Amino acid sequence: MASPQYSYAPPPNELPYYNALFSSADKQSSGYLSGPSAVEFLSLSKLPVDLLKQIWTMADQPASNTLDPSKFHVAVRLIQLFQNGKKPVDLALNLGEGEEAVRPPFFEGVNVQAAMQQQQQQQQPQGYHHLHHQQQQQQQPPTTNHDKSIGIINSNNSNSNN
């Protein structure tokens, strides 16, 4: 009998978090996690090994012994729910009506904020930082000739008082 196929599409406000987790786990930047890489990363959730095996089976459908980003999202969502003592009500891993928000998934030693910043920088076109710096400089009010002449007058006045 085939296992049910779960899916999870993180909402837009959570997607950068999930993508940063995937980037942290995908050390080879291959676009998928092999079994050993996934086990290494998912074990950082500190959930029992037997439960992680079940999560793997639920996420890796159809079975390929790898997790691509969409399968990884399923695995992380299941981990999040188990870490919060919640159960999904459907194959899209939603919570029941009236359920309060749950804490983000936790993976020991993973600095998600740093991964999110790194990912943001990688997604920006080359030259963006230079251009952004130029724009910031341009946003500062320019000094005018009037400002400069006042400065000269004031500095002359302060020199004549000595």
Please supply descriptive tags for the structure shown above.
162 residues; mainly alpha; two-stranded antiparallel sheet; 52% helix; disordered C terminus
Model description:
The protein has 162 residues and is mainly α. The protein is 52% helix and 2% strand. The chain has seven helices and two strands. A two-stranded antiparallel ribbon has the order 1-2. The chain starts with 14 loop residues before the first helix and ends with a helix. The model is unreliable at 127-162 (pLDDT under 50).
| Biggest beta-sheet profile | 2 strands, antiparallel
Overall helicity: 40-55%
> Termini, distance in Å?
96 Å
| Strand numbers in spatial order across the main sheet | 1-2
Instruction: Count up the helices.
Output: 7
Low-confidence stretches are 127-162
How would you summarize what this structure contains?
The protein is mainly α.
Map the helices and strands.
Layout (H helix, E strand, L loop, with lengths): L14 H11 L7 E2 H8 L6 H11 L6 E2 L1 H15 L28 H12 L4 H12 L5 H16 L2
Antiparallel strand pairs: 1-2
